[in-house]
Amino acid sequence: MERISINDTLRVCEKDYRILRLLGHGKGGYSYLAEGDGKPVVLKQIHHEPCSYYTFGNKIEAEQRDYQRLCFAGIRIPKMLAIDVRRERIVKEYISGRTVFEEVRDGNSVEPYLTQVREMAAQARKAGLNIDYFPTNFVIQDGLIWYVDYECNDYMEEWSFERWGVKYWSCTPEFEEYLRQQK
After folding, report:
1. 48, 95, 96, 115: most buried, per Cβ within 10 A?
2. Residue 62 belongs to some domain of the structure
3. Range of the domain at 60
């Protein structure tokens, strides 16, 4: 994968987007805040870096399929604006705000958002899905949480919010260990 830097221009479906900053690096790709037509968007570049705890098939096809599954399930997600299969890039609506992760890390209560994530979890389960409940995947905007990742998998109880995700939605030993590993 080519190195992407601030102010680079990337093409997605023959439209140019200027990279403003890196938002995050996940299992499947790098997400950047970008600008297209004077508006902020998220541009995700798929990567093929190894991941010891997750097996992928075709990542760009999985993103497209998972987006459809999440829409069908009624999960609040940013709209996919473009997908460029050849370049392995996705453009999606930018949801501005702090992540649940930032709130927990900074010692703020996320109690007001637990009802919302549990509602999302119930919707996902009803559709036979799990979403990735790690708090970096949830952005708070105007009192609502948005699931900003498109990853979803077939439902398994061990990866449900109550069995796994909730461990990272407050200053638990699991959350503290994650912070230590990131330093």
Report:
1. 95
2. yes
3. 9-93
In whole angstroms, what is the distance from residue 25 CA to residue 46 CA? 10
Provide the pLDDT for residue 60. Answer: 93
SS3 142: coil
57 and 87 assigned to the same domain: yes
Same domain? For 19 and 81 the reply is yes
Contacts of residue 105, defined as CB under 8 A and 6 or more positions apart, other chains included, come to 179
Q: Which of 93, 117, 140 delimits the end of a domain?
A: 93
Distance in angstroms (rounded) separating the CA atoms of residues 35 and 91: 10
How far is the C-alpha of 18 from the C-alpha of 178, rounded, in Å? 32
In a domain, 79, yes or no: yes
* Helix ranges, the chain (H): 59-73, 100-105, 111-126, 173-182
Q: What is the pLDDT of residues 40-49, one digit of tens each?
A: 999 999 987 7
